[in-house]
Amino acid sequence: MCRLLGFVAQSPRSLRELLGDSYDSFEQFSCDLHDDGWGIAWLDGSQIQVQKEPVPAHTSERYRSLADQPFEAALIHYRWATQSLEVEFGNTHPFRADTVAFAHNGSVSPPSSLDDLISAPFGADLEGTTDSERYFRAVLSASRDTTLEEGLRRAITEIAGSLNYSSLNALMLTPDALYAACFFSPTSLSNDLPEDYYDMHYLASEGSVVVASSGWDHGDWTPLVNGSLLRITRATGEVNVSPLSTSVPST
Question: Is residue 230 domain-resident?
């Protein structure tokens, strides 16, 4: 389980600048449940850079420095380790392959159930043991003969159709776009979590678009409907929301 935030800006902006007064409430996540690691992926020209550590974000000088660094596009992840998966570098999001980075909020259990959706060579050299990294490799496998966007759609359809999952919410960053998938099973939410735990929202304002998980003071943002995919085009900031091709379980 995790917290996600991503943004695209028409001129470089820092995370702290974009969130303003609500930044502290977002970072507060890393002081409690979501203190099992942090990671940031950002666009550097046509390349994707990633830095991450298996420590709470609020304790990390490295994280604080990056929160003040301006980027044109980035995604941020705070980890809550579940399924008894270790708190270690290889299990820390985001995961990267070539020019794409990926972060996940939710679970697919057991993680090994995803292995049949991963084709060679994407199953080799896993960084860690998480279901989330395997989910990413399933997206890459499904993208072999098509776009990454279509690969993400295909992977969600395959996982939802045959595997045990709580949420497939994810952010995916490429040189061309930031994608946010909102797809979760309302019936799988544990009783100790708020009802809106898997909800996602986005804010399109002049010069930037931000998308994030719920649970913090982020104002009156637009809900991202469960079962939909948000695409933010990097070059223009254009926002497109479209339904995924598989239905979500009813409450």
Answer: yes
